[in-house]
Amino acid sequence: MMKQSIRKPRITKTRENNNLSRGSERLKAARASLTMRASRIRLAWRLILVAGLICLAAIVWLSQTSYLVGLGYDIEKMEKKKVTLERQSTQLQAQIAQYEDLKRVEDEARTKLGMIPAKKVVYVKVPANQAERGPEPINSTSAQGNDWWRDLLEMLPQLQKPVAADPNQARK
Amino acid sequence: MSQTIERPSLNSSNNPDPERPRPPRRSAGPTVSEPRRPTLLGDIGDDFSGEADGAAKKRVGPWLSPFIRLRLVAFVITMFALAIVLQLFSLQVQDRYQAKEKAADMRVWESPIAAKRGTIKDANGLLLAANIFVYNVYAAPEGLSENQSEKVAARLAEILPDVPQAKIKEAVTFTDRKHLYNLIATAVTSDTADRIRNLQKSDENKLPGIYLEPKPRRTYPNNNFMSQLLGFTNIDNKGLVGLERFYNKELTGVPGTRLAEHDRDGTPIVLGQTQLKPPVDGGNITLTLDSSIQLMVERELKKGMDEHKAEKAMAIVADPQTGAILAWVSFPNYNPNEFFKTDPTLFRDPLVSDVYEPGSTFKILTAAIGIDTGAVKPDSSADLPGCVLKYGKSICNFDKVGYKDQTVVKTLERSSNVGAMWIAEKYGPDKFYDYLQKFGIGSASGIDLDDEAEGVMRTNKSKDWSPLDFLTSAFGQSVAVTPLQLVQAVSAVANGGKLMKPFVVARITRGDQTIFENKPTFVRQVISPQSARTTTEMLVNAVRQGETRLADVKGYRIAGKTGTATLYNSPLTIGSTIAYAPADNPRFIVLVRYDKTKDTPWGSNTAAPVVKNITEQLLAYYKIQPTEK
Lengths: 172, 629
Description:
The structure holds two protein chains of two kinds. Chain A is mostly helical. Helices cover 82% and strands 0% of the residues of chain A. Chain A has helices spanning 2-99, 102-111, 128-133, 140-144, 148-155, 157-165, 167-171. Chain B contains 19 helices and 25 strands. Chain B starts with a helix and ends in an 8-residue tail after the last helix. By secondary structure, chain B is α+β, with helices and mostly antiparallel strands. Classes of the chains: A mainly alpha, B alpha+beta. At the A-B interface, helix 1 and helix 2 of A face strand 3 and helix 11 of B.
């Protein structure tokens, strides 16, 4: 009986202990499962991130590749165009040379412009010091005379300046 | 609650209740009545038992049970898969290099990149030989319908009137795969090619299946101008004659290559493997010749040729100080753009390849040798008859008139053959031939032109030489020179005794880089400057008072000499005149020669006036002031 009486509380304690241990185990299990779940989620996110990065890299690579391929075709087109333009250039050079043919120029000068070859060449002796100095500049005012419209032009310097400043225009 | 929803396990070992009767084992056979389990292959449970009933046998055939058939199919598929794997192994592993090469051959190839042929320009930059593109017209008729072929043929016939319509029709009609590309026309001009392109570019391609293949071709924009000097190239742009041939290597350049991966259309893939070896374009040649002088000389020479009805006419203008050629003219010439229509004998440049007996112009050298050796002086004199008998042959002056106290000066002035022999006899054949060789007679000048003749000169060391050769050589017979050799030799007298190597190319450039420059080349001192000056004085006198007076230009000191050489096979002559000006510091030397003139045989009448006209214009061109009134 004594044994029985003594045993009973032991059994209770064991059960309690068991319950406690079960509780703690469950807690541990819950914690572990939570930790595992969290780590799984982290892993999943990492995988998603890696996959995303791979996708991104692939997209970038593909876009760059396609861009480069496009550029390659553009280069090829331009090279073809360059070749065509070079051909046109050589063709035009030959055409220019035909127009520059001295016989043709001479014929044009004779027939269209009525020019004849210079038969007499006159050499004018110029003193050495004057030859070095060059010809005297023509006096602009004396050459211009007293025309009233020249006075008007002089009053409009902004119209005269560009003509004098631009050598190409002056040539025209 | 949990027990109520728990599924009973089929596995006996996991049975929680050991008392529960086990389900009968399958090995117990069909005697145990158990419902048949359906399988993926249908109701075939019994067939696997090996004890198939008669009904089942009837259903699957007498020979092959479904099991065997299934295994057979699996075996065939496995074998097939194995064959594929083996083939893959063979291709990918065993024959990987061959396969790789085959694949590479299909998409990687080397395309040649043509090098541009260099141009030829004159000293002023005028283009004399240029490049253009002509086109070959091809038809690829495979995709054309009959209706389309007819339309294309009709349109092409309008554009290419020189090509027979039947040929066009045949080319644009598809017959078989052996004739996928048919050539319709070659060397079509760029204008015609543009017309074809314009029709193809229109909204509706009016010339489908027609392709243009560009081909570079040489063109000579000035046609006959300088033709014999320039020469020409063949259809493959290889120089055949003249400068084009001599400088072919420099003009051609080195073609490049591009090894690249190509797409289906043959377009190179930029990202693929590419090995580019860029072409090296040919050098651009700049000549020493001046087109203005050339044109003037051509004009004057042609005028004289027409006036005297000469068979041939030729002229050289050179700078005696440097040896640079300034004009190089010969008639008849040809149009190098149409060389295929030309008599091939005209391709030969007579100024450098043909020799002739120079006649009295050679007396310049005879006199110069006499002065330099000290055998004679300008005023050395002798009584000379109009004709002399030498070694059984009578040799006369052109007018058969003899003079008393004939000096060396008068010999040149009167162009006396007897006088020339007298001078030569004073120093003898050894010195004569030695000096002539120093003057470059009998050897090539080394000009940068093809097919240069060395001339013919029998010296006293030659086997077939006779003393008569020596005597007649003194007045320019029995010796044959090229016009260029004579110009080179007389230039040595003009410039103070220096023999200069003649040249026609000033430089060769590629882009901004000069890859070759021809500088004046001094060959040797032939006579002393003093002897050269003395000889020049005598030649000035010959122009002013002698037979060469028609070459005189008022106000200037011109040194020169005319010459008339008889021909062995014709009663006609070769008349020539050589002169340089200003005599004291010559800027140019002019040689004019007319062959077989009909109206007058004398060079003093045919060539001398032309030399005068040329000299006058050259003096004006170079702005050389007159030195005398």
